[in-house]
Structure formats: C-alpha cells, structure tokens
C-alpha cells in the first residue's frame, strides 16, 4: 500500500509556519494507511441473517478453531466465482446503500476435517434450499460431500462456520456456494462507497480497499495472503457506468433483473493471487490510455478531472516507470493491463491492487495550474511505489503479515529509483535521507520502538495487522534495504532479487528467502563481506533501534552503542544481539573518500581514523548507513569550522546529516545542545535545500518546546537573521518573485526561505504574503504560484481574521482539484482566532464539511498551531469515544492523531492530563493508537526533562548569538499576542473572550449587557416594531388575513350569533334607522 504519510512539501511547510509540527511528525500525521473499520452496528437488511441453528456452546476461553484468528491449514482454495451487484442508489426497504452477491469457491481438502471456516465480515446470508447459510457439493461426482449440520457466523473472529456431519476427504475438491447482502457503507474498507458532487449532482462510486483483512467484507473468502487463488469476477451495474476489476473485460451484456435494466460485465480470470489485492469498482469515470509494449495503461478519474487533463502526467510517467521495473526485476510485467484510478474518498495514499491500482486524487492527478513541484514528486514516487509492488508483493507475496515490512520497505526504497527514472533531473534519490531515514530515526530511537520483523504468532487480529503499517515498516524497511543494496552493490542486489522473484513467482515467501537469494548472489559474485547476508541483516531486522557510531580521532577507537533519544529510558525488550550491529562505514578524511570499513564488534581500533593537524573525519557518507555518527570534540570543532569557512567541502547530504545528528545527539545528551546550535551558525551561507530542511525540522522541536516561553523572542531574532540572506537570494534568483527557480531542490528551498522568513516576522515577507492573498481576494484571480500557495495561504490566514478565513473556506469548498483543496485545508488551521479554530474542529467530524479520510489530519494541523494546540487536545479528549466509534478501531491514523495533538506536551500538568485521558478511556480503548498513548506519555516526560536541563543554556545562547543592541526585555512564560507593527491602538482590554475585530463599516451600536434573542439567520423579516402592546405571536394555522387600518367593532365575547351577512355593516345601518 502506498504510504499515505508522504505529504506534500508544501503542506509540510505549513507545519513550519504553524510554529509547530516537526516536519517528521507532519509527514507522519497525514493519513497513512488507515482503514476505517467502522464499528457501526448498522445491520444490513438481513435476507436471512444469523445462524441456521445454534452453534455448539463452548466454554470460554475457548480453544475451538472458530475462536482462533488464523485459518486452519486443512483447506486450500483453488478458484472463486464471484458476482457482485452494488447499488448506487439507496435501497428503499433498508434506507441503506447495499450490494448483493453470489459466490462459489472450489477448494481442496489438504487434511481431513469436518469443519469449514471461511472468512466473512458484516455479510448477511440468504438461507439456501438446504436450510443453511451455504451449500456444499463435491467436485468429483464419485465422492459425496458430507451434509452441513450447523452453519453460523462467528463475528469476533470474522468467520462463516460450517459444521459437517462427516469428514471431507483428503485431496478431494469441493464447491461451496453462498448468497449474501452487504452494506455499501462510506467506511473506506472492503466494498464501500465514495461520493462526490458533479455539476450539482451527487455521484456515487462503489469501490474497494481490501488490504489487509477486508476482502471478507465483500464476499466469503479464505482471507489470508498465502491462500492464493484464481478469481472469476462478474460485476452487475447500471447502464452507462463503468465496471473495473483486476482482469480485463471478457464480456459485457445488458439484461433485466428484478425490474432493473442493467449491464453485466464479466472479467478475465485473474492470475493466482491473494485476496487482499482484489479490486472491484463501478463508477461513471472517464479515462485516458496508451499502450506500451502490448500493456494497456489507463488512468481513470472523475470526468471533469480527465477533461481538464489532470491524468496526463500520470499516464506519461507510468510507461517509463513500468519499463524501468521490468528491467530492474528482469521480469516482464505480469499482466496485460495496468489501470490506475483516482478516488474522491480513499484512506491510504494508494493501494497496489493487481492491475487496478487505487489512489487518493492528490496522489495521481496533476494540474500545472494547481500542483506544486512537491505534489508532482509525490505523484511520481507513489506511482513508482505501487508499480514496484506489481512484482514485489503481488507476484511474490509474503506468507503472512508479520513480514509486511519487507513488502512495504522494499517498495518504499525502490520508489525512489522508479521516480528517478521518470524525473532524472530532480536528484530525488537523495531525498530518501530526509523523508525516510531521518524521519524514522525519530521513532526508532525510542525505547518503545519495535524490530522490523515480528513473530508470526504475535500478529493475529486485524487490529494487530493494521498496526504494522507504520513508519518502521515503511521507512526503516526502506532505509535498511538501501544500506544493503549499497554494500552489496546494486548489481549483486538485483541479481539476488531476480532469482528470488523467479523462484517464488505466483507463490509466497518469508523475508529470509530474499536474504538467502542475496547470499547466493554474493557467493556467485565473490563479494567480500565480514559475514553472511542473513547474519549481517539479522542485526538490523531482529532488534529494534540503531546504533550511534562514535569515532575518536585522537585514539582511533571506533565504537557503537544503542542510540536512545532519551538516555534515561529503560529498554525492556531483550535483543538476541545485545543491541550491537554489524555496521558498514563509508567515510572520508579531509574531503578525500577512503576505503570502506566494517564495525563488527562493540568497539575496534582503526589507525586510519587517528588524526593529526587540521585533518578531519566524516563518516556515513551520503547517509547510506542506518546509524548516527558521533566524534570526539576536536573533530566536531573541526567539522563546525569547515562548515563556517568552506561548507562545500562536505557533501550536501552530509551537511544535512551533521545538522540532524548533532541535534539528536544533543537530545540524547551525548553532545551539548550548544554544539548543535553552533552548527546552525553557518546557515547564513547555506543555499542548498537538504541542510536547510534538516535544520528546520530540528528547530521545529525548539519551536514546540519554546513557543510558549521567553526563549521564543530571542530564537525568532536569531533565525530571522539567519534566513534573511536566503530570502534575498531567492528574491534575486526569481527577479523579485516573478519567476520560478529552475531546479527542483531550489524550488523546495525557496518555499523554506519564505516560510521561515514569514514565521520569524520578517516584515517584507509578511507583506508579500498578505499582498498576494489580498490580490486573490479582491480580483478572484489566484496568481500565487502553486509551489508557494501553502505557505502564502497559511501566513495570510494567520495574519488575517474572519474575512480571510471565510474566503479560504469558500475556496476550499469550490476547489475542483483535491490538491488545491488540501493546501487550503491545512492553511485554514493557521488562523490565530480561537473561535475560528474551534468551529473548524467541529467541522472535522461532519463528513459533509471535511471528508472522513481527512478528519484526523485536519485535527492535527490545528494542534500544530500554537493557538490551536489546547483546543485540539480538549476536543479529542471530549470526543474520543465518538471519534473512536465513528472513525474505526484498527486505523493507523489514530496513532497520528494522538501523537499529533500531544507533540508539544512538556509540562507536568499536561502529563497528568494525558494519564487521565488514558485512564478515562480504558474501556473504549485506543485501537491502533494504543502504542501512541504510551509513546506520548514517554515523550512528554522526556520533553519535561529536556526543558529543565536545556532552557537556560538555550536562552543564553540565542541571547548572545546576536550582537549587542536594543531589544525588548525577556518576558515571563505565558501566552502572548504576536508583536504588532508601530501604530495607534486602543488601550489594551483585560483578558477575556471577544468577538473578532470587524472591518470598518456601519454597525449597530454595542448594546448593554442583557438577555437577547439569538441572532437569526439571513432572511426576510418584518422591520423591528416600536415599543408597545402587541398580540402574542400565534402558532402556524389558518387565519383571516390581517385587516387594513380602520375602525372596527371590538371583538365580541363568546356566544351565539347570526352568521355574517353578505352586506357590509354600514349597508344594514340605514335600514335600522328607517324602522325607528
Ligand atoms: Zn506499499
């Protein structure tokens, strides 16, 4: 599955402006894999639900096979025939969107058994003619199938259970038939529906997300990755809609069923494949296509998106990337077609369904007018990631989910190779250091981390499987494989990879199978290694964490120790290698690359690393090794001097490394925080993206810890001074912001320059952002370059009030491309107005305002804003049980949510709140966020300690980092308004809740304190009436119309009267007079 956690550079930048999110966190927060396993109890209209007879009563805890989460090995599926009919309009009898289905599976009995267990979740079965939920027949007419004695649904373990009256015979084949109904819910898992508006009309798409355990929500199946089978899929759908599945269309015909005139699309049988890679989609999408060497490539999306050309970039890049991987794997693409489709509602970034890859719209659709270079990079890398899975993952599949890290880590590594092929000018391969290596270092340096590999028996329940889709699997997996490929050389690495794919094609493997094939390649190639590939890699795969390698250039001693961000944290997990690693060391001396070394013990002496004079050592060149590096103080000082005098002597990736290593070593109390800050002194000379990005993500921690303290002011002054030359550099390069820098990395760093300059209150920057945004508001024509939009929107909204916010909100609602909507959605969290932030928080739980897939990331955006932090935390605490029930229990985004809203916690008060939160919700639970709650507690404690130990030093350092001059005196800890420019102001009002300032205009004068009717919504009303006596308002009913002004008889008391005359009163009057 695609790493949804990759978010655009531009969105990441917003985080920086928000004075908050470490980029790493922001990256993590944006929607990774997060299936919403809706816990709603919506029962689909049962055609006939439940059991056909009571299941045998079993004592608890039960040891019955149906109470275990893993399938027994007795039955092996061969092929399925599945027909599904999703209804894209509400079912009148149930009021729900539903689908109906028929399924049959032919399986072979591998061990005699009188029990059939097949996965099934939230499906309601029709009772068949035998009175049971399924029919069983024998394939071979010579053998009679036993009869079904009991059939029932085991909801907790998600099985359809069939107890037979006799045994199935070994090596015989049987046929199991079912009929069922399911809900086509909007829960983003299994067979689900996605909705969107087109020309004012609501459209519904039926689509799927099976990984990891939701195929069983679409039809009964042996839903484990090793239970590969062939699938014959048929979809029934309305005329005019398009049906897609893994295979090509074999036949399509129209017919009438239950009074509906519908289309039946039969697909070619699939290859032998796992259930989690199936996909069924019915939509009225359009597509564009081309053919590369006989493979049909199509891009599907909403009709207006295709018409606007938003699929072209993906179409153009898919062919070259596919060709690259064919060459890389030395295996041709296994299928005749490659469909890719952009869905309005999709929880992960993308999903590698074999032959029909599904994406979030932002991960596939590109529009030059709206998309930044970061959006473009994301599209290229996600396409590469998913295409890489077509072989690695789909053709050869890991046997069980405990090896997920190999599947995802591999794709997360080679996605950079594929993207490089598509965009060779970008240097995109370098960026793995920032996006994966540095990102996962932050998580893997905690005592609560876990090894890449889990034991098969520890991963049983769907929630445990879901929890594996984390940064360790993706980013550590990618980092470790990159290191492996580097020390083997790419030639040897691909040699082993190719024989591995050859041996296990259409089958399943475990991770050691790959290592064994790589070892065979090492032997064939005569590569010199200190130990075998499996032995070297075991130290990286079977124990959590990574080492810090310390090089003492005075003695030549090189040593390693387990790197822990908090040195006081206690590691309770026992490691088979005692937290030692076999470490490849690439290094240079005084700018000259040296022979690579290995560290195979706790420590060793290497005379070549002993220095004299002005020489210096730099290790882990290009950060290909998965470890940090520390040096003796003299060598550190020489490196810092080098950075200041001629930073280009050190390779650019290593400049980023020096910054990141120094800040993290300081966090771990291995070097002083002051030394890390010293390194940032050279940044006023630095123009390259990677070191700046590395510095900004590390300084984000300083912002998180200090943006509510007196350190904030001096830190802002220092960073403003450091970033000003960069701001000027890009101002000149772009001819006063009128053109786009040529280089990909320059485009990124231009965004950094503007973001940090604006964030540190550089007035020229803020005026620039406000002017651009105002021009858009005034002319309704957006001339802000897509690269700069996120940062400009955020700064303008932060500086503005309700007017700017409402304008951005309406633009968000009218955005026709999700990429633009995403930029606005994150920028809306930048406002400093608490009431706007609170209202925005409420919107996140209303799917009509914020799509479910975006809810958690929006809450975290708000928490990243210093003004929104406590609001978001209060909101999550107050709504936890609702959020948990509505937004699924097994979802990865819960850990992002919890980590995101507690990131800034650094006081005892916050720690107590967090512990209370854990206690209060112990019954409701935290699902896949369980670990995150403990991690947050651990992080809060370590933040508290860090602040106590560092605040004074840091404040002193920032204070003296700037030359002597006139400054405001430091203020005590507290919440402050940002400084305002010089001007005439009203005297300050006491602390309290106020309406937001309104623009100049005519208003009613303020009214004295009192009870008033609430303001009414916009509409036509009678004008307000003057003070007087009035009839009370009457309830709705039939009345005589109000009479015109005039003299009338007073209303008469209750009594008997003649009916009203046809003549008016004055007409009758004269008659009376005459009689008299
Ligand atoms: Zn993946």
Q: Categorize the overall geometry.
A: globular
Strand content: 15-25%
Number of helices: 29
How much is the radius of gyration in Å? Answer: 33 Å
How far from one another are the termini?
A: 103 Å
Uncertain segments are 4-51, 1067-1076
Q: State the helical fraction.
A: 25-40%
Mean pLDDT: 87
Q: Can you count the beta strands?
A: 31
For the sheet with most strands, the description reads:
8 strands, mixed
Bound molecule kinds, no repeats: zinc ion
- Derived from helix and strand composition plus strand pairing, the structural class reads alpha+beta
Overview of this protein structure:
The protein has 1076 residues and is α+β, with helices and mostly antiparallel strands. The protein is 37% helix and 17% strand. The strands form nine sheets. Strands 1, 2, 4, 5, 8, 11, 13 and 14 form an eight-stranded mixed beta sheet that branches. Helix 1 runs parallel beside helix 18, helix 4 packs across helix 5 (373-389) and helix 24 (855-864) runs parallel beside helix 26. Residues 4-51 and 1067-1076 have low confidence and may be disordered.
């Amino acid at each position: 599955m695609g790493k949804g956690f990759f978010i655009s550079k531009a969105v990441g930048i917003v985080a920086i402006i928000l004075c908050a999110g470490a980029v790493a966190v922001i990256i993590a927060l944006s929607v990774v894999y997060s299936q919403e396993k809706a816990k709603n109890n919506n029962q689909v209209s049962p055609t006939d639900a439940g059991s056909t007879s009571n299941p045998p009563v079993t004592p608890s805890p039960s040891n019955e096979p149906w109470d275990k989460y893993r399938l027994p090995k007795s039955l092996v599926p061969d092929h399925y025939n599945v027909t599904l009919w999703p209804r894209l309009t509400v079912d009148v009898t149930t009021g729900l969107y539903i689908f109906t289905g028929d399924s049959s599976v032919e399986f072979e009995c591998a061990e005699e058994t009188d029990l059939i267990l097949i996965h099934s979740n939230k499906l309601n079965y029709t009772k068949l003619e035998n009175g049971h939920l399924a029919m069983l027949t024998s394939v071979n007419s010579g053998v009679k199938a036993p009869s079904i004695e009991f059939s029932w649904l085991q909801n907790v373990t998600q099985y359809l259970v069939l107890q037979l009256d006799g045994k199935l015979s070994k090596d015989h084949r049987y046929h199991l038939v079912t009929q069922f109904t399911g809900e086509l819910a909007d829960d983003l898992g299994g067979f689900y529906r996605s909705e969107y508006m087109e020309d004012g009309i609501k459209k519904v798409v039926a689509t799927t997300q099976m990984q990891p355990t939701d195929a069983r929500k679409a039809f009964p199946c042996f839903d484990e990755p090793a239970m590969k089978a062939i699938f014959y899929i048929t979809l029934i759908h309305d005329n005019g809609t398009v049906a897609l599945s893994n295979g090509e269309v074999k036949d399509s015909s129209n017919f009438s069923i239950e009074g509906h005139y519908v289309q039946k699309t039969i697909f070619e049988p699939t290859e032998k494949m796992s259930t989690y890679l199936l996909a069924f989609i019915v939509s009225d999408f359009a597509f564009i296509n081309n053919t590369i060497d006989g493979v049909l490539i199509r891009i599907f999306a909403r009709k207006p998106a295709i018409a606007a050309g938003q699929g072209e970039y993906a179409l153009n890049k898919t062919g070259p990337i596919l060709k690259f991987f064919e060459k890389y794997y030395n295996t041709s693409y296994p299928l005749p077609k490659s469909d890719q489709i952009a869905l309005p509602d999709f929880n992960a970034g993308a999903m590698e369904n074999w032959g029909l890859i599904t994406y979030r719209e932002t991960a596939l659709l590109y529009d030059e007018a709206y998309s930044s270079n970061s959006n473009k990079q994301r599209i290229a890398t996600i396409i590469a990631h998913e295409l890489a899975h077509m072989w690695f993952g789909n053709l050869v599949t890991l046997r069980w989910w405990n090896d997920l890290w190999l599947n995802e880590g591999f794709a997360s590594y080679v996605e950079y190779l594929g993207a490089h092929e598509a965009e060779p000018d970008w240097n995109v391969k370098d960026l793995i250091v920032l996006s994966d290596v540095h990102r996962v270092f932050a998580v893997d340096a905690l005592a609560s981390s876990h090894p890449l590999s889990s034991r098969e028996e520890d991963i049983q329940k769907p929630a445990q499987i879901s929890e594996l889709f984390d940064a360790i699997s993706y980013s550590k997996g990618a980092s470790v494989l990159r290191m492996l490929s580097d020390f083997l050389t790419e030639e040897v690495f691909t040699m082993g990879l190719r024989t591995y794919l050859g041996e296990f094609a259409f089958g399943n493997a475990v991770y050691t199978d790959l290592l064994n094939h790589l070892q065979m390649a090492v032997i064939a190639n005569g590569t010199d290694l200190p130990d075998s590939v499996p032995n070297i890699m075991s130290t990286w795969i079977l124990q959590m964490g990574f080492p810090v390698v310390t090089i003492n250039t005075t003695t030549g001693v090189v040593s390693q120790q387990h790197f822990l961000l908090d040195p006081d944290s206690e590691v309770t997990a026992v490691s088979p290698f005692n937290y030692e690693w076999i470490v490849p060391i690439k290094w240079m001396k005084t700018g000259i690359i040296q022979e690579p070394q290995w560290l195979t013990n706790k420590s060793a002496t290497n005379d070549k690393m002993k220095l004299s004079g002005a020489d210096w050592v730099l290790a882990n060149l290009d950060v290909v090794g998965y470890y940090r590096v520390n040096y003796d103080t003299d060598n550190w000082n020489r490196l810092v001097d080098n950075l200041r005098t001629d930073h280009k002597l050190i390779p650019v990736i290593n400049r980023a490394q020096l910054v990141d290593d120094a800040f993290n070593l300081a966090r771990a109390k291995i070097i002083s925080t002051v030394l890390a800050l010293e390194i940032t002194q050279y940044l006023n000379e630095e123009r390259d993206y990677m070191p700046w990005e590395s510095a900004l993500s590390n300084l984000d921690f300083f912002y998180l810890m200090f943006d509510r303290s007196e350190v904030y002011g001096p830190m802002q002054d220092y960073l403003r001074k450091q970033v000003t030359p960069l701001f000027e550099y890009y101002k000149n390069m772009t001819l006063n912001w009128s053109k786009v820098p040529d280089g990909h990395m320059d485009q990124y760093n231009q965004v950094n320059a503007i973001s940090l300059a604006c964030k540190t209150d550089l007035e020229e920057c803020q005026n620039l952002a406000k002017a651009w945004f105002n021009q858009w508001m005034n002319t309704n024509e957006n001339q802000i370059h897509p690269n700069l939009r996120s940062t400009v929107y955020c700064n303008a909204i932060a500086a503005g009030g309700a007017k700017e916010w409402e304008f951005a909100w309406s633009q968000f609602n009218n955005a026709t491309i999700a990429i633009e909507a995403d930029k606005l959605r994150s920028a809306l969290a930048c406002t400093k107005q608490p009431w706007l932030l609170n209202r925005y928080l409420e919107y996140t739980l209303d799917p009509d305002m914020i799509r479910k897939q975006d809810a958690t990331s929006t809450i975290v955006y708000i928490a990243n804003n210093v003004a929104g932090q406590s609001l978001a935390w209060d909101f999550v605490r107050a709504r936890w049980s609702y959020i948990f029930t509505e937004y699924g229990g097994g979802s990865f985004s819960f850990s992002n949510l919890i980590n995101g809203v507690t990131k800034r916690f650094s006081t005892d008060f916050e720690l107590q709140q967090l512990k209370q939160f854990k206690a209060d919700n112990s019954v409701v639970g935290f699902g896949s966020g369980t670990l995150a709650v403990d991690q947050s507690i651990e992080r809060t404690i370590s933040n508290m300690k860090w602040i106590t130990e560092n605040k004074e030093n840091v404040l002193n350092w920032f204070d003296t980092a700037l030359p002597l001059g006139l400054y405001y005196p430091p203020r005590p800890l507290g919440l402050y308004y940002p400084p305002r420019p010089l001007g005439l102001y009203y005297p300050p009002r006491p602390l309290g809740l106020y309406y937001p300032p309104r623009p100049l205009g005519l208003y009613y004068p303020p009214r004295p304190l009192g009870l008033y009717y609430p303001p009414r919504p916009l509409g036509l009303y009678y004008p307000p009436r003057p003070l007087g006596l009035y009839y009370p308002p009457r309830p709705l009913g039939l009345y005589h119309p109000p009479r015109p002004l005039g003299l009338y008889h007073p209303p008469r008391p209750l009594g008997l009267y003649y009916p009203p005359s046809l003549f008016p009163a004055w007409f009758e009057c004269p008659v009376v007079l005459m009689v008299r």
